[in-house]
Amino acid sequence: MMGWETVLSAAWTPRDGLALDSSDLPVVFADALGRVAHDLHVRQYNGSIAHIRWVAEYDDHTGVVFLLSDVTATGRAADGLGASGGGAALDADEEAIVASMAYLVQDQVARARIAWPWGDADGFMSPMLSDGIAVWADHRVGSRSRIGEL
User: How far is CA 119 from CA 115, 125, 135, 139, in A?
Assistant: First the structure.
């Protein structure tokens, strides 16, 4: 029987950073989540993130890992676990995993009514792969910053 399996549990706060509770995934997934979590410290607009709880689920039918986020904005209730977008293949490289996670986390942060990461020229920066490297692209000014180094 095929189905979904929880393969990672983690949390993030501004004070403590990333806390990985458990992971049955290759280490590149934890490394990728650490890079995304690093960038959560900067460029928030229209509020701030107080807490994020993450659960990654593996779909053994497709071989894809989906990162679900439960974002709590400061002064508000948690929004509940959710994800909108695609996941990363279990055998993907770290850069592809980072880009996927960044997109999924950014979407859930936006659902909590916080813009992240906010670009230099206003507006969201977008996660993407550029020459095989996961970057935040600020399309308004044409700049790119490696995810994990904002």
Answer: 10, 5, 13, 9
